[in-house]
Design brief:
The chain is of the alpha+beta class. It has four helices and seven strands, in the order H-H-H-H-E-E-E-E-E-E-E. The protein has helices spanning 8-30, 32-40, 48-62, 64-71, and strands at residues 102-106, 113-116, 119-122, 126-127, 130-135, 139-143, 148-152. Strand 1 (102-106) and strand 2 form a beta hairpin.
């Protein structure tokens, strides 16, 4: 028969598992009655420390001053609730006109491209809602369905 060789991590895992098992056995021996009564469905006597803590909690709940102070807080005293804004003509969202920067054109009679807002576009492409209608030697014509925008190439 061959011997089984364990890796270092497997050995460490077995040692930890053994320690946990030994702790569980000693805890069971120490608290045997509590475990047996719990699994048998019998209620056990509450330790004196827990009874004192429960009585203290009951007294705090019955104290009218404490109830009054905590009841005014609501759910979360640190929560900042935003007030609903009234919608008026001045507070309506204003749609900004997109800005275009024509940085360059590579013009060919067929297949021209332009560099607009650091994006390379050709005729038929759409950029920020505008369709590229025509690319000429020194200008690009855009159309959004309602108005035309002409971008001119300036000397840089």
């Amino acid at each position: 028969m061959e011997k089984i060789q364990l890796t270092k991590s497997q050995k460490i895992l077995f040692i930890i598992l053994g320690i946990v098992l030994i702790y569980a056995v000693f805890d069971f021996i120490k608290n045997k009655e509590t475990y047996l009564s719990f699994y048998a469905g019998q209620s056990t006597e509450i330790p004196a420390e827990e009874q004192a803590a429960e009585q203290e909690t009951d007294q705090l709940l019955n104290d009218p001053l404490k109830i009054d102070l905590t009841s005014t807080w609501g759910d979360d005293p640190f929560l900042i609730k935003k007030k609903a804004k009234k919608i008026t003509k001045s507070s309506r969202k204003i749609v900004k006109e997109p800005t275009f920067v024509l940085k360059g054109i590579s013009f060919k009679p067929r297949g021209s491209v332009a560099l607009i807002n650091d994006r390379i576009v050709k005729e038929g492409d759409v950029i920020e809602g505008y369709k590229v209608i025509k690319i000429e030697e020194k200008r690009v014509i855009l159309w959004d369905g309602k108005k035309r925008k002409i971008l001119r190439l300036t000397n840089i």
